[in-house]
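ok so I'm stuck.
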Amino acid sequence: MFSGSYDYKPNKSAIDYIIKNLIPELIKKNISLVLTGNHKINFHNKNVINLKFISMGELKYLHRKSICLLVPIFEGYGTRVKILEALIWNNRIISTQKGIEGINFQKNENVIISNNKKNILKAINVLQNKNNYYKNFDQKLENISMEENCMKFYNFVIKRIKF
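replied:
not stuck anymore, here's the structure
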């Protein structure tokens, strides 16, 4: 699955990358791409399922049932809410280094970093055969520290601004 508006350039690039480079291989394994977000586009591909806007409950359900959240983002800015949600709901994540930038994920065995097509496809194969154990919200919070990230940002800014 991929979550995010097609109107946002990094998301558009990621979705286009998935459709062009990964879907032809994934079709052979009967794997489809499910999109959520503000996508009014018909991708004219029966293996690209565009759900557009969905409720939080539906999103949570997709996280529980999907092979992974796929985030092949090669440019972008800030922390990806889609990844924070996937971490909280214990979905598996395949992301580029840029896609997960700013998120402390080292303690999470469900995160795979891959920056190229070959390794992304390998990771999908591994995760397809792995059970997705759903843990509760509190168990996943230890891997996400907005307070720590805010403090790093605050210290970064305070060193550069003279009051």
